[in-house]
Amino acid sequence: MTIQQNNQLTENHDYSKLSVNRSCFDEWIVPTYAPADFVLVKGQGSELFDQEGKHYIDFAGGIAVNALGHAHPELVKTLTEQAQNVWHLANGYTNEPVLRLAKQLIDNTFAEKVFFCNSGAEANEAALKLARKYALDKFGESANKSEIVAFKNAFHGRTLFTVTAGGQPKYSHDFAPLPTGIHHSPYNDLASAEALIGEKTCAVIVEPIQGEGGVIPADPGFLAGLRQLCDKYDAILIYDEVQTGVGRAGKLYAYMHGDVIPDILTTAKGLGGGFPIGAMLTTDKIGKSFGVGSHGTTYGGNPLATAVAGKVISLINQPELLQGVIAKHELFRKGLESINQKYNIFNAIRGQGLLIGAELKGKFTDNAKDIITHANREGVLVLMAGPNVLRFAPSLIIPDELIIEGLKRLEKTIGILV
Prior knowledge:
Homodimer. Belongs to the class-III pyridoxal-phosphate-dependent aminotransferase family. ArgD subfamily. This protein folds into two domains: 9-71 and 319-417, Aspartate Aminotransferase, domain 1 (Alpha-Beta Complex); 74-316, Aspartate Aminotransferase, domain 2. The protein has 15 helices and 17 strands. The chain has helices spanning 3-12, 22-28, 61-64, 73-83, 96-108, 120-139, 160-165, 169-172, 190-196, 220-233, 284-287, 303-316, 319-343, 368-377, 400-417; strands at 40-44, 47-50, 55-58, 113-117, 147-151, 182-185, 201-206, 209-210, 216-217, 236-240, 264-267, 278-282, 346-352, 355-360, 380-381, 383-384, 389-392.
């Protein structure tokens, strides 16, 4: 067959009508994931349907991404309207949605400057680069102020820089040599962190709640101590709020629950409500170290993404919705405690807002994946945070009746496995 004939076949073939199933993933996709054995095709709110029409209650939320569920009508309207105007511009130009979103974030947080990108990993990459650049600008090359303190079992992304900062060797050891100058302390261990933070430290990066590390909230004293150490040694305090931000913890950002204010905050996941977007928020003083050409991204600040994100922030940053997140947390906790009273399966139930972790024990220790697989069969989607923790990160507006029904399905799953 000639190239011309092959091109003609491709042009005439309507791939939107191509019949696909789960086996196609194994045939065509690089195997970095092992997805469930069904294909989801339709979502509405906190409910999903697969190719066979089977119904699922969504407790996963796209890993804390679908903050307003699936196909929220106002997000659909916003995206459709923007798609009829400007989709994308080169970064030599700006656009209205990105400017409005920047002002929205600045007005509702500590920030004075915003950098937009496409994911949490990119936001953290930008934050770590900015911290080193700021230290270089302020102290000079001879100070060698470039070290970063991070925490074990953290997760900051999959770029080489962020996966090294993450402190989980299972994600980084195959990609050595890794970036240097990054040191790890146990989470919530202020004394250990203090031993690592010093004159050569340019930044400390921390999650207010470790998500992938097991849904472990930081002790308030731990975060306050990190702030004091950063102030003492003129280091940048970076809050990774990729998973905890945009209402997930019951405030617009989790740092708002306490008195500690970071120098840089990273956000993504729920920010776009399902449309890929990330952002790094910081002060004017620190942000100035990123001059023209020092950092960038092709898609960052895309009009489609920023228009949707602006609507997401407007809908979520409302007292009634945020109070509802706290109430739904209690409903989840009571339901999980009821399951635990019956089956004695959880060692601890922890988290904040609608980021909840249930640590397994007994015969279920390290068997989170098995429980999730069986829960899928009962029609409820649940996440894991390591092999020993079930994680729940549903829509922030999931109806109470779906929480109750989803927990009934999870309880049925556990009853089968006991």
